[in-house]
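Reopening closed ticket. The problem is back. First fold of the pair:
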Amino acid sequence: MKRDTLLLPMLLLSLGSCHGDQSAPPPSATEAPTADTSAMESAQSTGESSVGPISSRGEVIAQGSSGSQPQGEGSIDFDLPAGWQSQPPSSNMRIAQAAIPGPGGPGDLAVFFFGPGGGGGVDANIERWIGQMENPGQPKPETFETNGYKVTWIDVHGTLKASSMGMGPSTTQPNARLFGAVVEGPGGPWFFKATGPDATMAPARDGFVAMLKSVRAKA
């Protein structure tokens, strides 16, 4: 009887060792997910992309920027020159676009908005626009104030380079002209860009400037 009594605890101990402890130990601090991992899992669960939409300059737009014109503070109105043909914006980064008729063939206007404070600084955009032309000479930006907004714009002549981003001409365009403007103000900036054959854009220059001077807060 004493032998059986001693064997029973030993048998139970042996069975416990074979099956192991069924409860997992609590994870250590080093096994906790990192902040980056948590963010990635959150993006996957909500269907968000880890890279934001791409702007017309090939830059990643900050998450949370809608890329469209806001309704309220920061919205602007302006007057399209007579004869310019308004078109539906081809992307949500554009708040307006238009075709510019002329003797050299049609030109194009696009007005961009990337969210308050988005789109880069004035000098960087001016330099980029100049850099889109071959042999641009030495164009000088001009600045003026209108209706509480500051406008800086550039008029560039030359050969418009082909774009590798799919956001411009697929081939070089000789005898071209580019008007580019940055409009600074509450909720901005906004970017106006018009390109086309010089024969069309030269007579459109005054209309482009008049359009910039008409910029005002949306009522």
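Second fold of the pair, where the issue appears:
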Amino acid sequence: MSSSFSRALKLLRKEKGVSQRVAAGRLRISQALLSHYENGAREPGLDFISRACDYYEVSSDYLLGRTMVRESAPGGDGAAQYDASENKDNRLRGSAAALMSKRLLGNSVTLLFDLIDRGGDKKLTAAVMRYISAAYYKVFRMLYSARGMNAETFFSVSEHLYAAAAEHELAAAEMQIRDALSAPSGPETPRISHESLNREYPLLTPSLLNVLHQVGDRIGKTEL
């Protein structure tokens, strides 16, 4: 089982504010066995995973590190959203640049939502998702319309309304992010540094830094 499981198990217990002894009692196992699970020394059975999901109120996919969405989709875990990253047959065909872009952005988004999730603020998670989704929508719509195709045959939003509201959607999402971060009862965001990122996300951090450096370089070269 991946290290994501043991890490998620430990973080969920800490978020709940209970000791290993208390959690072990609720999960009907010994404290020593729970310690082994949280440290990755032992692998649990399906019965324990089911009890842990009920106790921490998360989906099994979240607990196993297969998704960043805590709750089960309607209809249970079986109806959870398809994750292309889990499908080994879903390989990009074409240029190396496309493959590299997919990996850089995919890894960066995974790291981003994991950091946000630590604060336990669902409003912040939703706001960030709204912002990223709006940018994705804009790109996909431009691709669809590039050859003069009528976007209204594919999208439910008319071209006139889209032109007037696209930037507003991004701005509204950004405002929601700022409001969530500045609220008195807002999420406790983790301290971010090169050292902490490399320590906690050794495989994902290089992708994030690559994306940040690329954008920073472009901004730095912009003539005002």
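Update: turned out to be a display glitch only; the data is intact. Confidence is low (pLDDT under 50) at residues 73-83, 86-92. Residues 122-145 form the longest helix (24 residues). Please close again.
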